[in-house]
Every structure is written in structure tokens, then in C-alpha cells.
Amino acid sequence: MPSGQSSTAEHNQASHDGLRSSEALIGQGMDRCLSEPHPTSQVRYRGTTLWTVTYVGMDLALKAKLQKQRYHIVGEHGGVKTCHWTKESLLRDRQCYKGKFYGIESHNCMQMSPVVDQCNLACTYCWREPHMDTLELTDQDPLDLLYESVRAQRRLLSGFKGNPKVPREKWLDAQNPKHVAISLNGEPTLYTRLSEYMDLCHKHGMTTMLVTNGTLPKVLEKLDTLPTQLYVSVDAPNKEVFDAVCKPKWNTNAWDKFEETIDLLPSLDTRIVCRHTLMKGINMSDKHIEQFAALDNRADPDFIENKGYVFVGHSRENLTMENMPSHEDILDFSNKIAPLTNREVLSDSRPSRVALVGREIVPIPVPKATMFFPEDLGMAPSVKHLPMMS
User: Fold this and answer.
1) From CA 117, how far away is CA 250, in angstroms rounded?
2) Which residues have CB under 8 Å from 339's CB, separation 6+?
């Protein structure tokens, strides 16, 4: 089968299917007006318009900040950034906790998001750059998004090629990622062709790990292709903490939607992870642990990750160093929640301040490739960064 030509017809059919999937979303309240020069979508709840989505490009000031932070922007809203652990794997043969927990090889992992600049929450603990204050999207073709993301990953890793500390075989292996962490920044479920994108990843022999804030349950429910592993950020044990910590931008029913996702999770035929971001003095009391356990029992995930908040980036404007739990605090939390969920502490990683709770460790399954990257895919060209704007 010629590389890069494995199934153009399949991709065209997938695009058509994706459109039908988007039309199903329209029926749930996202009225996309494709005939306008700048299409818009009205997001409604019980007949009330919550916000309007305009399909245009990324805010230039935000784009400049992201480029300065070594994001490679893909299309209008996507982005790729080399993970710290990808670099550590290449330079020092160290692995991310996902390697220890799930068998992910860090040098083979591509960290990206189809929507790096948009999110419907403004979480206090988020260390990423603040997102745009409006939802403005341009949907990118999913195959183009995948190939341009891989080209961007190759560009970002190009500087390691001549490093004497990096084994050449490992660097070459890293040119074709085997794992896609759809978790870099923003809320990826805002990308209406997400299902097609993940399907193409799987057809190229890559796993997908999708991280979502869980406030768009209808999107998850209607995905034709589910991620290999779905992470839901369960960072608040109740509505009061949710509103204070996750800070919904445009609507007051985000907690209700989040609870819909919790109750949806047992019906999704994929690996599920409930991730608790732990903030000392905010969501770690014994009462909070009981409330988290109740949510986890409703979701019935394969794994529970208890991960400590880290005082870095933009989060320093909202929280303090005192909100960072120690690894011992995280283990104490984990040892308390495990019996409440009929699970046990399976593993932990001190460098990443995280503990894994579950019933057994099962390596993530890697799909067999039926499509292949074109031999002439190459890497993305270097990009002149936009000047920083005041």
C-alpha cells in the first residue's frame, strides 16, 4: 500500500460522516451557519442563548505569547508543544508517569490540542496561558491537523538530532509518534471534528489520550470514535468548590453538565480515568474525599489519578505555594479514597506528584496501523514568532 495513499476515499467518507456528526450536534443546540463569511454557532440551554461561537482565527496577542512559550501553532487554533518528559526521555532515558502507569514511551508521545486558545472554564489551578474570552473557532480538516501536528513535532525535535546525549535510533523513532496526548491547552471537545481526528490517529497506529473538563457531555456521548483513554478532570467534589475553582465563564449550569458526564462515563466503551487535581486547603479535606469518592463511584472509571497542583505559570496569579500538596499528602489522600471506591493504590510517581488508584494496571492497547504517514511528509518550516503585544 503506497504510504500516505492508504485510504483517501475512507478519509472523504470520514469527512462526510463527521459532517453528519456535527449536524447531530447542531440538533443539540450548536446552530452553525456555514453560509456566512464568518460562520457562527449559538449555544443554547433550555431555549436561552448562552454564548455565540464565531468561526475566525486566534487572537494575535495570545498567539504571540504561545509562540514565545515554544508552542508550534497548527492551523488557526491547534498547537503542538514538546512535553518535558519527551525531552527527558531523549536526553536522559527518564519516563513520564504515564510510562510507569500505562506503558507509554515518552519519546513517542505527541502533546497537542486542536483548540489551544479556547476554553469555557477559567480554572484557578491552570498554569497555561489564559484563553480567549470568546469562543471563536475555525474547524480544521482532521487529516491536515494530524499531518501538520506531526510535522510540527518533528520541527520541535529537530534540535535533538545532533545532541551526543540522544541515541540516534531513539530520535529516529520519535519522528513518528505512537501516542497522541490531546491535552496541551484549551478544551479539545470544542473541536467539532474530534471524532474524525481520533479515528485517523488510530488508523495511523497511534493511541489517543483525550483530556476534557467534562462540561460538554453531549459531545462525548455523540463521538463515533472514542479515545483510547479518556481523562475527565474531576477537580471539585461539589458545586460550591467547582464554581470557585473551575470558574465557568458563560453559564451557571456547568456543574449540572459535568454531573451528566459523570453519569455518562460507565456507558462509554473505552478506558476511563478520573483525574483529581489536588489543592491543599481547597479540595483535600476528609469531607471532600468522601464527596470525590461518591463521584468516582458514579463514574466507575478504570483508574483514578490523584495529582498534586504545582505552583507554576498563570496559576501563580490565583493560588499560592501553600496550595501545593506534598507527595506524602497525595499518598495520604489516595490511601483514604481507595477503600471508599473499592480500589487500591497501584502505583505513584514522586517526580510528577501523582498516585494511581484502581484495581489492576493494564498497559494501554496500541492499535494496528492501516494508514501510514507519507514518505515525503517532512517537517514544518521554522516560524518567525509574532512580536509580543502589550
Assistant:
1) 16
2) none
Q: Say what the pTM is.
A: 0.84
Q: Domains in the chain: how many in total? A: 1
pLDDT: which is higher, 253 or 47: 253
For cell 443554547, what's the residue?
44
Give the containing element (helix H, strand E) for 40.
strand 40-45
Identity (one letter) of the amino acid at 184? L
Provide the residue range defining the domain that includes 100: 57-358
CATH code of the domain containing 272? 3.20.20.70
Is the per-residue pLDDT at 25 higher than 90?
no
- Whether 309 is covered by a domain: the verdict is yes
What's the pLDDT band for 131 if we cut at 50, 70, 90? low
Which residues are within 8 A (CB) of 150 and not within 5 positions of it... i.e. 6 or more apart? 110, 176, 177, 373, 377
User: What's the rounded Cα separation, in Å, for the pair 240 and 260?
Assistant: 17
Q: Could you give the residue ranges of the DSSP H alpha helices within 281-390?
A: 286-299, 327-340
Using CA atoms, how far apart are residues 159 and 161, in angstroms rounded to an integer?
Answer: 6
> What are the C-alpha distances in Å from 325 to residues 101, 153, 295, 297, 316?
21, 33, 22, 24, 15
pLDDT digits (tens, 9 = 90+) for 354-367: 999 999 999 999 99
**Largest Cα–Cα separation, the chain:** 62
Please indicate, yes or no, if residue 8 is contained in any of the structural domains. Answer: no
Residue range 320-361, pLDDT digits in tens? 999 999 999 999 999 999 999 999 999 999 999 999 999 999
d(CA 336, CA 301): 17
What gap in Å lies between CA 350 and CA 373, rounded to an integer? Answer: 37
Residue 17: inside a domain:
no
Short-list 262, 269, 132, CA closest to 190: 132
Expressed in percent and rounded to 5, the helix, strand and coil fractions of the chain are 40, 15, 45
Take residue 340 and report the three cell numbers written for it: 471508599
Q: Report helix angle 286-299 to 254-264, nearest 10.
A: 50
Cell of 271: 478506558
Q: Is 141 helix (H, G, I), strand (E, B) or coil?
A: coil
Q: Tell me which residue of 183, 91, 192 sits closest to 140, measured CA to CA.
A: 192
Cell 501536528 sits on residue: 149
